[in-house]
Amino acid sequence: MYPRGMPRSEELHVRAGDAFLAATLLLPDGPPRDNGRGRYPNVLLLSSWLPRDRDGAYDRIGHPGWFAPATTAKGELTGLHARLAEALAMHGVATLRADPRGCGASDGRWEDVTLFAKIDDARDLLAAMRGRSELDLRRSGIVGHGEGAGIALAVAIGDPAVSALTLIGASARSWRETLRRAAAMRGRAGIEHEHPIVVAIDRWSEELIEHAERRELTLTLPLHRGESVTLALAPFEQAIHTPPLALATMLHRSVTLVHGGADSWSDPDESTLLAAALSDAGNEAGRRLVPDAGHDLAEASDELIGEIAADLAGRLLPRELPPVLLAIEEMG
After folding, report:
1. Residue 3 lies in a domain
2. Residue 188 burial by CB count (10 A; 0-12/13-18/19+): exposed, middle or buried?
3. Coil, helix or strand for 104?
4. Integer Cα distance of 73 and 298 in angstroms
5. Residue 47 Cα distances to 37, 149, 152, 215, 296, angstroms
6. What is the mean pLDDT of residues 260-280?
7. Which of 219, 242, 265 is the last residue of a domain?
8. Each residue of 5-22: pLDDT tens digit?
9. How far is the C-alpha of 202 from the C-alpha of 146, rounded, in Å?
10. Cβ–Cβ under 8 Å, residues 59 and 104
11. Which of 235, 276, 286, 326 has CA 20 to 30 A from 61's CA?
């Protein structure tokens, strides 16, 4: 297991467009370790599909009736992001993790949030980190989980100050193919069908795709006990037409791809496709398959989570800053 220290946390409310996002900044318990700059390398953590809280767990409080209660047997009480944040702190890396729009204590309705809005929110969260004098602007990274992997790619392509990415359970192809394959697999095996929202999405996956591609505005899905949810379709339409595979060809940064061998949202083959696209663009990605682990890596040991954190910490090398960030660095 990775050693347990006492990292310092601070609760933040970050302005993101027309919303405020509730977030946790976690700082290592000791002084910055290297380069004499007196600032911590830092990482932004981006959530996967479906409503989730800042820790990476399903947002059961904000979306009652969507998810079954968490079970300790599945390691669901501590989300992936909380585990990674603690592990990164042990390696001297600060992290910021936020409740996505419409989840936890953040503003908005998750059902209405578009993919492009999520990308803008990620940029605003990075900007908030860069306003902190204790964080090193030259050594920043992003962890993207599931949907967050595509968002991380989109952000890093246009941000030269991002040093490194770790993409966990990423998809490569269009959301059309990803959803069809995942829904079929979960339907056969009954995986995650304790959650009413997953059952609804899987049962109505073809209708979601068809209506989104026709650019219809909404689709209402039945849940259980007479409940239903109305989803905006713009997020699905944008995800269909923004495959991470295309984004990967434009990225020239350090990347490690991590995938659970039993991922029911994104098949491990997706990481293989992403690795090939990155390689074709001259960017050799690291690879790690976690046998028998699901999408959230709940089955992964603390030691393995620590190794993922150590790998990312070691790749947070200083970057040359554009003039705007140089000015911010000098003011800090």
Report:
1. no
2. exposed
3. coil
4. 10
5. 30, 8, 10, 25, 10
6. 96
7. 242
8. 578 999 999 999 999 999
9. 17
10. yes
11. 235
